[in-house]
């Protein structure tokens, strides 16, 4: 989803500090990169991390949103410095294509009625084997579109809030229909701004790209397989800061209204927002204290309570005392 950017203060960025994410030197590009990986069925998400780390000779890697071993699809993987940035995806909306199997025959019209009831806010109890506390909670189902009903098999696409259990969703659909149901197959098709049309690669693609780089010095394939870590924050509302504000944030300061050059028009109070430089580099993230309109009108006070710093201090000069 794209939002309009509003100019708060006309500002210019010095070419002497930082650089556009896509123009980073290759070693830094890899270290601040994310991979939109197409996870195969079989391995765990942690095994995928380990293989990526070994393929690219990295110190560390991490994924944004665990997939069960049998589930396929979008698994964003952060490399080295980008492992902290990839954590921004843990709260990102998700999309899946799922095959649900009913345990008895049900009229098609009734199936569609129940699916319509299971959109908007729903209640879920996490499964027994889960990483979270097992207590009833609400989750938003943005849409559940049925593609095909073939006997007891229902193929559908679901867009949902982070933390939604599709397996539980299928079980609850079966209970509502009074016949029981289970999730037969699942593929994740989107995480935040990562989707199947956006540089989706396999482990073999990554291996080949790294081989071309090491053996032939051709980094073009690696730059296609890896995206800048800023992609992990692409789905978030944004504030773009002046060069003079960057280093203070890197040292742990909250973002003052006077340090903002531009912002998107979709910021609400308490939203998690991404903080970027004028060159598009990800500085950090935090919770907005004001709406877009209030930030635009304010010349004093703080706009963002910074909770995550992702840029190293000293990248931009120190203007603060």
UniProtKB/TrEMBL annotation:
Residue ranges of every copy of the PUA domain listed in the record: 237-311
GO BP annotation list: box H/ACA sno(s)RNA 3'-end processing; mRNA pseudouridine synthesis; rRNA pseudouridine synthesis; snRNA pseudouridine synthesis; tRNA pseudouridine synthesis
Family affiliation: Belongs to the pseudouridine synthase TruB family. Type 2 subfamily.
Keyword Repeat: no
PANTHER family: CENTROMERE/MICROTUBULE BINDING PROTEIN CBF5, H_ACA RIBONUCLEOPROTEIN COMPLEX SUBUNIT DKC1
Protein name: Probable tRNA pseudouridine synthase B
Dyskerin-like domain mapped to chain residues: 1-49
One annotated GO molecular function: tRNA pseudouridine(55) synthase activity
Superkingdom of origin: Archaea
